[in-house]
Amino acid sequence: AKVLFKPTDSPQFVTVSGVRGEIPSPIVLDPGHYTIKTTIDKVIFLDYFVLLPAAYYEASILTRKIENPCEITDLSLCSHFKYPSIKMYTPAYTGYNTEDKSSTSTVMQYSDYEHLSIQGEDQIPVLNGYQPKLYFPVRVWQSGKYILVVDYITRRDYVEPELAKKIVHLDNDVEHTVVLNAGRKDIGIISVTAIPLSQWSLDYVTPSQVCVMRDGECVKGSFRTVPDSKKIEFETDHEDMVSDNLSDVVFDNNTKLINLNRDLTTIEIRSKVPSPGRYVILVKFYQPYHPKFNIDYRIQVDQQTLEGKFPVRHCPSNIGCREVVKGEGDYIWFDIEDSFGLTLTNADPSKEVWLDFVLLVPADQFK
After folding, report:
1. Would 354 be classed as within a structural domain?
2. 282 in any annotated domain
3. DSSP-derived 3-state class of residue 182
4. CA-CA distance, 351 to 353, in Å (whole number)?
5. Does 62 or 226 have the greater pLDDT score?
6. How many CB atoms lie within 10 A of CB 354?
7. Which end of the chain is less packed: N or C, by CB atoms within 10 Å?
8. Domain check: are 247 and 312 in the same one?
9. Which of 8-22, 74-88, 145-159, 170-184 bottoms out in mean pLDDT, i.e. has the lowest?
10. pTM of the model
11. Strands (DSSP E) found in 50-143
């Protein structure tokens, strides 16, 4: 390994990080005795050196994993979560307290205004002992089997209520009425949505992390850097494809992203690896709106073409997500001698994903 010693009039620490002093050069050592030798053709005064375990320079022992979800009573340091969007299924937001749905003026509303403000809601009907039933009119565009999803909030001191989950058959030529019943505790009903069974995913009721919140504000996270990896921005040679419509969860508005959607379905990038070897291919992306879906990939390496599916999971994270491109048999590495090409195609016009960059990581450094 090489070390860059810059001129200095006072003592300094320097990291073994190559001739340009940019990327630290880690070494793997087994227990035992070692001799460290330095060679230089200039006059230099050396005092001592220190071997730092990875846990120190990667700062893993200095970090705290925040897993507790944010609650209205505690926003000091917590994880903020979000569900995939259900707006494409036309949720029913208006609830009535009579079956004939004659008026909404007499419907009692949820009255915890601080909670409503945090949720971004103005008024929502409430289920409680004084208003034990609510009626929501639901229409669907195609007859078939559906799963009903209720979006709701409860009082801050209320244990999560039990909601029945069942499959129902709905016809498209009539208005259906969904009746919700409750006990004495307040439950605010935001919406009722019918999702086709054929499009159902547990992601709709399984939230994913957006960010870590400190005192009610999202803070920016980060990924670990990987020595000897190569980063390829998707906008390289594709500046005309950079999206003006950034996902609303992106922390840095200066981030350049390529949005694969119904108008732009395919993008191709080409590059070369620093040296021949076995690499893991990571794709950085943002996908805040949909349950997990697949996009097609094609990899061209050394006169070979490999094809497969790349899973794009629900990712509302404000710093995006990284996913490994897997080959046949779930292999996570590819042998690349020199040139490399990656083509991604979104074949589902109803879904979209924002692409940031590709990271080529030497297989022996991937964790």
Report:
1. yes
2. yes
3. coil
4. 7
5. 226
6. 24
7. C
8. yes
9. 8-22
10. 0.79
11. 77-82, 126-127, 133-138
